[in-house]
Amino acid sequence: MTKRRMAGSGRFVALAVAMAAIFGATASSAMATVAWRVTSVSNTVVAPEGQLTYHLELTDVGDDATDGSEVKLTATLPSGLRGVSANTGSSGFECPAVAGENVIVCSGAPSMGSDAFVTIAITVEVEPSAPETLTTFFAVEGGGTGAEAGTTLDPVRVSTIQPGFGIDAFESSILGADGTPSTNAATHSTLQTTDIDINTHTDPNPFVGDAWPVEDLRDATVSLPPGLVGNPSRFSQCSAAQLAEGEFDPKPLCPAGSQVGVVIVRHTEGAFGSVPLYNMVPPPDAPARFAFNVNGTIISLDAHLRSSGDYGIDVTASGIPQALAIVGNSVSFWGVPDDPRHDPDRGCPGEVSPYLGGNPCSSERPPAAFFRTPTDCVGPGQVSTGLRIDSWQHPGVFAESSAPLHSGPRYPHARSEWGPPVGIEGCNRVPFEPTVRIDATSHRAG
Description:
Layout: E1 4-8, E2 36-41, E3 45-46, E4 51-60, E5 71-76, E6 81-87, E7 93-94, E8 103-108, E9 117-126, E10 133-142, E11 150-158, E12 167-175, E13 191-198, E14 200-203, E15 209-213, E16 217-223, E17 229-230, H1 240-243, E18 259-267, E19 270-280, E20 288-294, E21 297-305, E22 313-317, E23 326-334, E24 371-372, E25 384-391, E26 399-404
Parallel strand pairs: 3-11
Antiparallel strand pairs: 1-2, 2-4, 4-9, 5-8, 5-10, 6-9, 7-8, 10-11, 12-13, 13-23, 14-15, 16-22, 16-25, 17-24, 18-19, 18-23, 19-20, 20-21, 21-22, 25-26
């Protein structure tokens, strides 16, 4: 279950994948039209016969502004939930029928530029016969000819027990070009994604409120499957000073060829992103570092080799700032960072990121693969990624989870709805084409 879920078209905090992807995310492609992303943030748990509010952010992540035509948001509630009210604020939307309804439709004709967003809050109540898990489906469409719809899910648990600090949702995927898991040994994946949500609740402080992290995330470590490796030395590097350029709206001076992915940071009322993720000049004690700058706050992700056991890779974010009320994030590492398909999300040096309205850039480097899948063939359920997190309120007290590589459906579906686990196969098909060359070291007889 998760507090904030997002999916759909488009282009964190916690830890990313360093050689894989630690908070998962979605990569976007060029869209010469309106394209929608819908983010839903809500509490992890709702009491039986209690009320719950979905905080929705509708963002145009396409290349075009809306044209003034109707935009429609549809919330389809599961059996066990019914509508109570909707707060559309200054969004320009109206929700004519909400109370008692299972399908709630809100519509409007907002004038929105590319990357602009509006917020809507929908409150529902739990019926006495509700099951333990309730998943609401959201879809937004319209706003222009050929507009691309955005959808997401938001599962919540029904319980009398409020959650403590912990992991609400965690998934890490190794995906191929067709969006299915990369299960062939020693192949180059197209996208490494990791999604993390932490438990949220209603804070008793009236100035804080709904969908707030139970405790503030401090440290997070993602343990990648053994054999999943990457080679960041192939790509340009960004320095700490270059990444820190700018203030609230960062304008990193990082080379375009140093961007290796994107991060989407989910907060209590929506999402920041897609924030560029850069390959950094590593410190002396880490073989690789990746980092991003969100609203002037820099998060670093350091990769280390596990020195005992399976010698896999751990990626750690330490001392995560409390400046943002982060409840989740998605990190995407691109399998081929210099591929032109990533240009719409690639920031230009000295400009704000494309998601803030900056110009997109092309990489100055020829395409090269970043990751290689494991070479040890194992059965379904034996390829998994681990997660450990602690909070500023209780440092050193870790919550843990693991997630197997599996087929769809995936996040943001509840774990109980995931597809079956998969393994690594094809070790007998790993390319092996050795060559031999013999040169004489002397031309004198004897």
